[in-house]
Specification:
The complex is a heterodimer of chains A (about 110) and B (about 900).
Chain A: H1 10-23, E1 26-27, H2 28-38, H3 47-59, E2 63-69, E3 75-81, H4 83-109
Helix pairs in contact in A: 1-2, 1-3, 1-4
Chain B: H1 2-13, H2 15-39, H3 44-55, H4 58-68, H5 71-90, H6 92-121, E1 132-139, E2 142-145, E3 147-148, H7 149-158, E4 162-175, E5 184-191, H8 195-199, E6 205-206, H9 211-215, E7 221-224, H10 226-233, E8 243-246, E9 249-256, E10 277-280, E11 292-300, H11 306-323, H12 325-329, E12 333-338, H13 339-343, H14 347-389, H15 394-430, H16 445-471, H17 475-479, H18 489-524, E13 534-540, H19 544-555, E14 560-566, E15 580-582, E16 584-585, E17 597-603, H20 607-611, E18 615-618, E19 632-636, H21 637-643, E20 653-658, E21 667-677, E22 692-696, E23 704-710, H22 718-728, E24 733-739, H23 740-783, H24 785-793, H25 798-827, H26 843-869, H27 873-878
Parallel strand pairs in B: 5-10, 7-9, 17-22, 19-21
Antiparallel strand pairs in B: 1-2, 1-11, 1-12, 3-11, 4-5, 4-11, 6-9, 7-10, 8-9, 13-23, 13-24, 14-23, 15-17, 16-20, 18-21, 19-22, 20-21
Helix pairs in contact in B: 1-2, 2-3, 5-15, 6-14, 6-15, 6-16, 7-11, 14-16, 14-18, 14-23, 15-16, 18-23, 18-25, 18-26, 19-22, 23-25, 23-26, 25-26
Classes of the chains: A alpha+beta (about 110), B alpha+beta (about 900).
Chain lengths: ~110, ~900
């Protein structure tokens, strides 16, 4: 694993996937590409983590999948957010923001 | 969550298509990555290599996916099961012994569970049975007495918590035949209007009584049982409205009861299971101070508890004490008990003890199979070690071994169903009358479910220790094959198991020993009469001249030594309800009055001679002892001692209750004692319930039975007796020809049954323990062969070797007996209710059990010990 890529903790990956899917349904590769690009190439999601995460989210009913045609007309499995998933995204986003704000405060004062 | 479940099921059952879908997805991902890299100028091969690196192992993703959906767990379980079956098939001897042992242990539990379920767990076959309760009256020292009609009426009117209350009283009656020349004796149940609707949902035909029938004096209509309907009327569906002649009356049939209907009352209520005819009680019996004869059942309103009902009845009892003088003197009170709980109160402790007993037997069976598994573990050591070396975790290995154990237990469970069924048939064939009427006992779905749950738990119990023992190893010693002579943990656990088996067997054997001694005591109990060669039979409908004449005529038969008549035949459970009343000697203070009760019996002269009771002093009744002469009575020695301690009872006066005016027309009276007779056991062989007062028949006419002592064989007399009766009076029915010896045998039957069961269980436990001891000793000999060889080479004689093996084999037996004593001491007092003539901590029984068990253990060790003697030291030392 290249040294300048960060390892993502599991819960955060779920949040990122849900966020990525909030805009439009995408297939697995597109999700990992989008995360990689938007994070300015800092975050690299390994397939070994991505697909298990996608299946886990699907089991929990937050995303659902269907087979469709990709832009280059190949058969690909698309994932999209469900209503429950949308609610979960809101909940997790606000939790994340609270957490990071609190951590930042402590890091500031600990100087 | 449904989504989760749906996906898991899909990935399990459509493994292949789901797997290929995942492969497609991953391949798409790979291709997209390659495309992206080639688009930015990377050559194709390099792009492919980088993409492959980035993706990681495809199989690993598949594995994780299947792990996540739980498919892996199920797949490995199936794999374990297949492997376990193969292993079991490879060693058929081991499998057969283990399955048989388990079948015996689990099967015994299944059989006893069926009994416990039918009697204790299943509700009675009545609508809403949990809300049924029995109401008992308490007069003086009698706490389980029936209630009077007046008390019943008060309860019915004033109770708010009882939705319905009904009462029943059963007597004998005669059906005068239309087509049958012989009149038929039947059981007639007099009931209150609410009784039948209370315990039966709907009649098979017609209707039940309603409250208006009681008001309208329609006591000329009856409801008949299904059995009577088929017997007498051939199940004629137009029977409603037709008449039935009972005694002097012609009664109209109102309804027919369903086929499976029966009365399940506590055994001391004298209510038979299926009375043939039900008639409405006429209200004339309901005056204050009337006799207490009704057995009451009530249904509580929903939400009402027993405690609340009891408080309500306490209030009603208080009102009765206030309004009826005699109730106050007798400290009258009422008690309400849930119906089913009261029904089983005698049987419950026996069943619970039995259930504990079979549980013990199952533990022994488990210990034996665990020993077998431990013995086998030695040969599986190599395989297990290889698996561990290849990366299997200990948990995984234990799971695989446990699967084997559970499979074994599962087969044992299947065989146990047959064993249980057979055991149940045997049990049902042998069970005594007293346990006969409580529930239909059979092997049903609940028993099957119980069997399999027990099998599963058993598999885990006996499988866990060997599984842990087998997998507790370090890899190098396991792969090497030499064993050392030390006492390995496996051997230690085997010996410990034998110790436990011996201890448990000791407990069971001690219990059996105590029960056997009880049975022997019961066999030797003096019932107060000589039952051999005495026949009893019941006549329905005759008056005194008839009885007197029949007595004369029968005495004249050749082979007949003596004939008489009694109202209640000793030890007869199917006889009429007991007649018991207060008595007190002349001059008793008012506290002494109305406290002691005696059983009253109405007899003709010659009764004591006929049944072989011992007259201690005084004389028997004569034909002149009737209502017009001095009222005389005979009492038993128990009453004489309690009423006139230290004095002669002859000539003393006793306050009694009699009815010279006719059947059941009771009055207070004084009787002069003219004879004292040795106590006769009427209710049971082991318990003296009450002393007895005998009155001449003319003072207390009531339904009676004949007793007849003959030197001729009793069955040969039945036809002549019938002939004689019908010659004298065609309307009199005769039923229930029973020799007294049969009644005595029946009284012993419950003890005999329990002793037999206990013996069977202890025998099974002993057999399993012997097999266990034999197995473990053989195993010890085999594993110490090299040590024995060394000893013999160093000069030990074969005798020394034998002594060595015997000592090491007997050590767990002896220690097991000691632990068994410690185990039995707190447990045998639980049997106290079943014992008679022997105390629970009976030292001789304990000692005898210890000796017996050590002897049996010695015998089981002896054969392996002899085999050890034959070890050739040269062969042993070469043995690796």
């Amino acid at each position: 694993m290249p040294a300048n890529y960060l390892e993502l903790p599991q819960g955060t990956l779920d949040l990122l996937i849900l966020r990525t899917l909030a805009l439009e349904p995408q297939h697995g590769w597109a999700i990992s590409e989008r995360i990689h690009q938007i994070s300015s190439k800092v975050l690299l999601v390994q397939q070994g983590s991505l697909y298990p995460a996608l299946h886990r989210l699907e089991r929990r009913g937050w995303i659902k999948s269907r087979w469709g045609a990709s832009d280059n007309n190949r058969r690909a499995k698309y994932y999209e957010l469900t209503a429950r998933g949308r609610k979960q995204l809101e909940a997790e986003t606000s939790a994340w923001e609270k957490l990071t704000t609190a951590v930042a405060q402590i890091l500031d004062t600990a100087q | 969550m449904l989504n989760d479940l749906r996906l898991r099921l899909r990935s399990f059952f459509h493994r292949d298509s789901v797997g290929s879908e995942l492969s497609d997805e991953l391949r798409f991902h790979f291709d997209q990555q390659v495309q992206k890299l080639t688009a930015s100028g990377v050559p194709l091969d390099e792009a492919r290599r980088r993409a492959r690196l980035a993706i990681g192992t495809r199989d690993q993703i598949h594995e994780e996916f299947r792990d996540a959906t739980g498919v892996r767990f199920v797949e490995s379980l199936l794999q374990d099961i297949r492997f376990a079956l193969r292993m079991l098939r490879k060693s058929p001897g081991f499998t057969a012994v283990a399955v048989l042992t388990l079948a015996l242990g689990i099967g015994a539990n299944t059989a006893i569970f069926s009994v416990v379920d039918a009697i204790l767990l299943k509700p009675l076959p009545y609508p809403d049975a949990n809300r049924l309760a029995i109401v008992l009256s308490s007069f003086g020292n009698e706490h389980r007495a029936p209630s009077s009609g007046y008390a019943f009426e008060q309860m019915r009117q004033h109770s708010r918590l009882f939705k319905q209350i009904g009462g029943i009283w059963v007597t004998n009656a005669t059906i005068v035949g239309t087509s049958d020349p012989q009149p038929e004796g039947i059981k007639l149940a007099e009931v209150t209007a609410d009784f039948l609707p209370l315990i039966c949902n709907r009649p098979a035909l017609g209707r039940f009584f309603v409250q208006q029938d009681a008001a309208q004096r329609s006591s000329l209509s009856i409801v008949i049982s299904y059995g009577l309907w088929r017997r007498k009327f051939d199940a004629d569906r137009s029977i409603i409205g037709k008449p039935l002649h009972i005694g002097d009356n012609s009664l109209t049939i109102l309804g027919v009861l369903p086929q499976d209907f029966r009365l399940i009352f506590p055994d001391d209520a004298s209510v038979p299971e299926t009375p043939d005819v039900y008639i409405l009680l006429s209200g004339s019996k309901f005056t204050p101070g009337g006799p207490a004869f009704l057995h009451l059942v009530g249904r509580l309103r929903s939400g009402a508890t027993i405690a609340q009902a009891q408080s309500e009845l306490d209030v009603i009892a208080g009102q009765l004490r206030a309004t009826v003088k005699s109730y106050n003197a007798q400290n009258y009170s009422l008690q309400v008990i849930p119906f089913q709980q009261d029904d089983v109160r005698n049987v419950r402790s026996v069943l619970v003890i039995l259930f504990g007993g079979v549980g013990f037997v199952l533990l022994i069976a488990c210990a034996n199979v665990a020993n077998l598994l431990l013995a086998r573990a030695g040969s599986r050591q190599r395989e297990t070690t290889v698996r561990a070396a290849l990366g299997a975790s200990r948990g995984r290995l234990v799971r695989q071994l446990l699967t084997e154990s559970i499979m074994l237990a599962f087969f044992g469970g299947m065989a146990a169903v047959f064993v249980g069924w057979a055991a149940l048939q045997g049990l049902l064939a042998l069970r005594p009358q007293s346990l006969l009427h409580l529930g239909t006992i059979r092997l049903d779905a609940v028993a099957l479910a119980f069997t399999f749950i027990v099998a599963l738990l058993t598999g885990i119990v006996f499988g866990v220790a060997p599984a842990l023992a087998t997998t507790r190893l370090d890899l190098t010693t396991g792969l090497k094959s030499t064993g050392d002579g030390r006492f390995s943990p496996k051997q230690g656990s085997k010996v410990a198991l034998i110790l436990c088996e011996v201890a448990v067997s000791f407990a069971l054997l001690t219990g059996t020993g105590l029960l056997v001694r009880t049975f022997v005591s019961v066999l030797h109990v003096d019932p107060g009469f000589q039952p051999a060669n005495v026949l009893s039979f019941t006549t329905l409908g005759g008056d005194y001249p008839f009885l007197h004449q029949l007595q004369q005529n029968l005495s004249a038969f050749s082979g007949v030594q003596s004939v008489s008549v009694v109202s209640h035949v000793p030890l007869d459970n199917g006889g009429p309800g007991n007649w018991y009343e207060y008595y007190w000697p002349e001059g008793a203070s008012s506290e002494q009055q109305n406290t002691a009760m005696a059983d009253y019996r109405s007899i003709l002269p010659g009764y004591f001679k006929t049944i072989g009771a011992t007259m201690i002093e005084g004389r028997d009744f004569t034909d002149t002892d009737d209502a017009s002469h001095q009222h005389v009575i005979i009492v038993d020695d128990a009453l004489a001692k309690s009423a006139w301690p230290g004095q002669d009872a002859l000539g003393k006066r006793l306050h009694i209750s009699d009815s010279p005016a006719g059947w059941y027309k009771f009055q207070d009276d004084w009787g002069v004692v003219v004879g004292v007779v040795h106590h006769v056991q009427y209710h049971s062989l082991t318990v003296m319930v009450r002393p007895q007062v005998y009155e001449p028949y003319q003072l207390a006419p009531r339904p009676v039975s004949f007793v007849l002592r003959a030197s001729a064989p009793l069955p040969s007399l039945i036809a002549p007796i019938r002939g004689q009766i019908s010659k004298l009076n065609k309307t009199v029915a005769v039923t229930r020809f029973i020799p007294l010896s049969e009644l005595v045998a029946e009284a012993r039957s419950q003890t005999r049954f329990i002793t037999f069961l206990s013996g069977a269980l202890a025998g099974l436990a002993l057999l399993l323990t012997c097999i266990g001891i034999y197995g473990v000793t053989s195993y010890l000999v085999k594993s110490r062969t090299s040590e024995i060889g060394i000893r013999m080479a160093l000069g030990a004689s074969p005798r020394d070797v034998r002594r060595l093996v015997l000592r090491s084999g007997m050590a767990p037996v002896v220690f097991g007996c000691l632990i068994g004593i410690a185990l039995s001491l707190p447990l045998t007092p639980l049997l106290a209710a079943l014992l008679f003539g022997v105390r629970p901590m009976d030292a001789p029984t304990f000692a005898a059990t210890a000796l017996f068990l050590c002897g049996v253990g010695f015998f089981s060790c002896y054969i392996p010990a002899r085999r050890a003697m034959k070890v050739d030291p040269l062969v042993a030392l070469r043995y690796e």
